[in-house]
Write a structure and sequence with these properties.
The chain has about 120 residues and is α+β, with helices and mostly antiparallel strands. It is built from four helices and four strands, in the order αααββαββ. The chain folds into two domains: about 1-40, no CATH class; about 45-123, Endonuclease I-creI (Roll). The chain is elongated, with a radius of gyration of 19 Å.
């Protein structure tokens, strides 16, 4: 059952709430009798694949190349990594701190979408 795969493997608080509602719904219909749902998010580490899966699903990498006469090679190169998620400001701040760089900001006030923006400028 999918609930066994998800339970105790979630990081995002709103996903834990969704799983809890789903398990309660299954239990109320007597489809599934299961222990209580996960209440505390798991920690992000390099020992599991959660972060790479999250980046694969929600992140993107960009390379901008712009002509710039002041540079030695005549170009400015900017590498950018973006990761965004609705209603996950605290989780994105944790990821930013875990990675040791970047900025977390509100991308869309309408749906409370937050973004981590990490960039590196190569001259």
């Amino acid at each position: 059952m999918l609930s066994l795969l998800f339970n105790n493997h979630l990081v995002l608080s709103h996903r834990i709430q969704q799983l809890s509602c789903w398990i309660q719904s299954l239990q109320s219909r007597n489809y599934w009798q299961y222990d209580p749902c996960q209440k505390i998010p798991i920690n992000i580490t390099l020992n599991n694949s959660w972060l790479s899966g999250f980046i694969d699903a929600e992140g993107c990498f960009n390379v901008y190349i712009v002509k710039r006469a002041a540079s030695q090679n005549g170009h400015r190169i900017r590498l950018r990594f973006i990761l965004d998620q609705k209603q996950a400001k605290n989780e994105l701040i944790f990821i930013r701190n875990f990675l040791g760089t970047g900025f977390v900001s509100l991308r869309s006030n309408k749906n409370k979408k937050y973004i981590i923006d990490i960039f590196l400028i190569l001259l």
